[in-house]
């Protein structure tokens, strides 16, 4: 039991981490689950105030970077502020609309396509040419993709911190194969 429950909990956190790919707030769900673990477990390990501040800070940074990466992509490819806002709105709408498809993976494609469509339409409404709008929309899609990747990486960092908080002295080891 000493290793079973923490191992099961960390496995659940690993599965929750996959929700980032679906553009869902997986890092925040991880924070909530860790808080529940902390109060439900009589020996929570090294889960002190500094650990929770770091966890919440990482989750917040992940959200900010996800949106800033998309804004960076749109600006790098020449979008206006209107196109940037359209891309963010489109990404959210696309993720929500496409979430039921492909066992939830549709949300990823929906977010990427939605970012592109939202930026493209808003740039056209702003009076820009189709070529300029196309290029700006490409930036919105690329930025959204990088934002999702970075947010997933931050989630992995949160998972590793939780692993070390649950088992303070443990370090993961890989099996050694001898030939």
What does this structure look like?
By secondary structure, this protein is mainly α. The chain has one domain. Helix content is 74%, strand content 0%. It contains 6 helices and no strands. Helix 1 (4-17) runs antiparallel to helix 6 (130-166) and helix 5 (106-125) runs antiparallel to helix 6 (130-166). The longest helix is centred in the C-terminal third of the chain and has 37 residues, at 130-166. The model has no long low-confidence stretch (mean pLDDT 86).
> What's the number of extended β-strand segments?
0
Helix content range: over 70%
Uncertain parts: none
How large is the share of residues in beta strands?
Answer: under 5%
The succession of helices and strands, N to C, reads: HHHHHH
- What would you report as the Rg, rounded to the nearest angstrom? 20 Å
What would the principal axes of the Cα set say about the shape? Answer: elongated
How many DSSP helices? 6
Give the quaternary arrangement of the chains. single chain
